[in-house]
Amino acid sequence: MTRLVLTFTDSGAGGLKAARLADCVIGVELRFVCGKLPAASQLDALLSPRAAPRRTGAHWLDSLSGGLLADTHRQGLGLIEFCERFDAVDLWVDPDPNSQLQLVWLLDYLHPHVGVTSRLAILQMDQAIGEQQPTELAARQPRLAPIYGDHLETARDAWTAWRASTPESWFKLLRRDLGALPQLRNTVVALLEELPSRSSGLGATETRMLELLSAGHVHPYDLFPGHDKLNERKTFGYWEIGSLLDGLARCQAPAISGLDEGPFDLDMHEDRDRHQRYKRGRLALTELGQAIVAGAADFSQYNAVHRWWGGTELTNDRLWRWDAESRTLVAP
Fold first, then answer.
1. Strand 328-330 relative to strand 312-315: parallel, antiparallel, unpaired?
2. What is the DSSP annotation of 311-328?
């Protein structure tokens, strides 16, 4: 029996390849937790067959490497056609929100293709795949469960809700039985918590960074989440966290002072001296930052807001908020 494994992080794909669990392991990593979502047509084109000689635009084939896959590249296969070459297709899914969003997106895409969904099985992890040893991963393989209609329907509704122009449908997922995708409920809550708070105008990750700074953790990377780090919020990735920190320090009325190096981009990382200055920087809360931590100020009253939360465009005039105490959505 030939087996294909699909996963949603590069580190996870590397670990699964080392575990030798399948004939082929593919990692497809997109970012859906932050920024404007790609149009549906772009996502369809990403997974559809790519006809030669047209090679422009992002495509799932770009993540493939190795001589055994050269034929797949040459033929420009879509993901559906590639999956149909295998007897079994396994989905290994990390618990973080971005991986869960990729899961519901992919299941929604695969939903009409019975020739693929009938071969699907899923393993929902409670720990990041890339953090585990290959021997640990190999021992988990028997826990794979077949994909059924309730998996596909739950995924379709969740992906539709995340793409909606308001957070209302996403909030309503909390009233549903999401047991078919057991990590999805945690993701729904984690993303609602990243809406601007009713009291502070900041999401949970930004708020946690200010709290850590208030507690004396003054270097930029002290505020980042990660293994054995005090910031336990793992909704966003490395680059997104750096951007959030920039947003707290580089705005009309900063909540943080002392972030003298930046912005947090690839250019800074590739310049060793600049990156070292960034690491050594000593941060402090401004008066506004102190007031926010004390529960006495709203960041959005002093600064312009314009960002995307799924399909919802958040601005000062259209600021959907989350009330953590009552666990309710607050309309603009």
1. unpaired
2. TEEEETTB--EEETTTTE
Q: Is the dihedral of CA 307, 312, 318, 321 positive or negative?
A: negative
CA separation for the pair 318, 285 (Å, rounded): 27
pLDDT tens for the chain, residues 1 to 332: 899 999 999 999 999 999 998 999 999 889 999 999 999 999 998 898 876 545 556 777 776 655 556 666 667 788 999 999 999 999 999 999 999 999 999 999 999 999 999 999 999 999 999 999 988 888 877 688 999 999 999 999 999 999 999 999 999 999 999 999 999 999 999 999 999 999 999 999 999 999 999 999 999 999 999 878 889 999 999 999 999 999 999 999 999 999 999 999 999 999 999 999 999 999 999 999 999 999 999 999 999 999 999 999 999 999 999 999 999 999 99
CA atoms within 13 A on the CB side of 204: 18
Of 3.10.350, 2.60.40, 2.60.120, 3.40.50, the CATH number of 3-163 is 3.40.50
Q: Is 178 in a helix, a strand, or coil?
A: coil
According to DSSP, the residues that pair with 315 across neighbouring strands are 306, 318
Q: CA triplet 61, 104, 19: central angle to 5 degrees?
A: 60
What DSSP element (H or E) covers 39? none
Compute, in degrees rounded to 10, the torsion defined by CA atoms 130, 134, 136, 142.
100
Q: Token pair of 125, please?
A: 């992890």
Integer angstrom CA distances of residue 86 from 5, 35, 82 = 10, 34, 8
Q: How far apart, in whole angstroms, are the C-alpha atoms of residue 80 and residue 114?
A: 10
Would you kindly state where each structural domain of the chain is located, as residue ranges?
3-163, 204-304
Which among 34, 63, 68, 36 is positioned nearest to 47, based on CA atoms? 63
